[in-house]
User: What shape does this take?
Amino acid sequence: MARMIVVDRDGKEHDVEAKPGLKVMEILRELDYGVAAICGGLCSCATCHVYVDQSWVDRLPKAQSDELELLREIPDFKESTSRLSCQVDFTENLSGLKVTVAPDS
Assistant: This one.
């Protein structure tokens, strides 16, 4: 099984099983680390905001304009690492991906 490392809002690191074929948001939503994913993955609410570990940023597909537009509106946006986890497909190649759940803004 593929793995993902999740840093929760308290700074605690968790090594979790992650099923390829799901959105990162779907994996995080099932865990209790604060990812609400209110819009269900429609890229309209930013409640699945995460920071991607810098070592993984270039391995992910680039954010599309609608994702970037929404991200830039939130106070905790970080230009190089912020992503909406609903817009990231988890694949076998991403096993080991490290994300930090962004503050609830």
Q: What stands out?
A: The CA atoms of residues 92 and 101 lie 21 Å apart. Helices lie at 24-30, 65-71.
